[in-house]
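Re: that backbone. Tokens:
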């Protein structure tokens, strides 16, 4: 490993794991917002100088039956985001919290969203989950991986829960410059081992910190194991919570990420991926794309002209039945 120059200027992040109420009314959404407000107040009082407080996925709504989420969906900006913005500005912190966002098309399902507020209460980043956890989550997928400037020179991106099971969202964020990948989640048993594996993999392969904040408790569907953690850019867990509600502060050094990306020779995954074999083929290696899955991503074979992209190649190795709302309701929640 290359020696990475030390830096000053830690970003102090507080992770909060709790059990949001599965809201079936606006009053219960307000109850969750009150919990968020109380945790932020505690974090600021307990950890002077804290920069950011991060909450789990579905922190304002909980995870209720999809029809309730449809009713609890909010606009951006809107009454829910206004309250979250005030929490951030009142306490002078960066706040990461969730919403269910109304779709621009009222005929379509909402988005599973996550917002980053700056200390002035402005929305610095709005993310719509790109990979809903099918078939349980019937949300409209997002189409973009935004990155924003954060405290202490960080570049922030969000990947929501199941997004982190896939390598592409984190890689997209890293290539856009993200040094801290925030993963708010509602991860449940029996995938507690997968939780650690995917958090560590996304950090290591992208030379980035992963701040993974999970839920605890139970709802009508699942039991959630917590284990919120921060993973450094070498894949090491530098701090981790247990399975109970609470909060923890972790200091991270995002400038080390920038240094590692610039200074490393070996294990510089972001460079090596686009400069394959530069030792054998100097000076830049082979820079063509060898991965057919990415070359063929949006091509549709003629015999599948009415089908969505990738249906035909995916059908060769995976499921052949198109998913839909009717299937989700009838067949339950098998992963």
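Recovered sequence:
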């Amino acid at each position: 490993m290359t020696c990475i120059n030390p830096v000053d200027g830690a970003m102090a992040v507080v992770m909060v794991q709790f059990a949001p109420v599965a809201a079936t009314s606006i009053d219960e959404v307000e109850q969750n917002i009150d919990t968020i407000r109380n945790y932020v107040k505690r974090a600021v009082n307990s950890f002077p100088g804290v920069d950011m407080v991060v909450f789990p996925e579905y922190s304002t709504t909980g995870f209720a039956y999809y029809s309730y989420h449809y009713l609890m969906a909010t606009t951006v900006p809107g009454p829910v985001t206004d309250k979250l913005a005030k929490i951030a500005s009142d306490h002078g912190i960066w706040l990461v919290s969730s919403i269910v966002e109304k779709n621009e098309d009222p005929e379509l399902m909402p988005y599973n969203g996550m917002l980053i507020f700056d200390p002035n209460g402005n929305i610095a980043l709005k993310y719509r989950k790109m990979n809903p956890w099918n078939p349980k989550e019937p949300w409209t997928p997002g189409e973009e991986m935004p990155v924003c400037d954060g405290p202490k020179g960080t570049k922030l991106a969000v990947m929501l829960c199941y997004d982190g099971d896939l390598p592409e969202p984190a890689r997209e964020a890293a290539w856009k410059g993200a040094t801290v990948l925030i993963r708010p989640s509602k991860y449940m048993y029996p995938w507690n081992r997968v939780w650690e594996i995917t958090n560590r993999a996304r950090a290591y392969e992208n030379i980035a910190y992963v701040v993974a904040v999970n839920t605890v408790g139970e709802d009508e569907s699942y039991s959630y194991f917590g284990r919120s953690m921060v993973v450094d850019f070498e894949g090491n867990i530098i701090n981790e919570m247990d399975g109970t509600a609470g909060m923890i502060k972790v200091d991270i050094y995002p400038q080390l990420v920038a240094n590692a990306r610039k200074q490393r020779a070996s294990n510089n995954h972001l460079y090596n991926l686009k400069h394959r074999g530069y030792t054998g083929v100097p000076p830049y290696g082979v820079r063509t794309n060898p991965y057919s899955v990415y070359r063929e991503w949006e091509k549709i074979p003629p015999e599948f002209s009415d089908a969505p992209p990738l249906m035909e190649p995916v059908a060769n190795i995976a499921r052949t039945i198109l998913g839909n709302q009717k299937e989700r309701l009838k067949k339950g929640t098998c992963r």
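The chain has two domains: 11-264, 292-331. Residues 325-335 have pLDDT under 50 and may be disordered.
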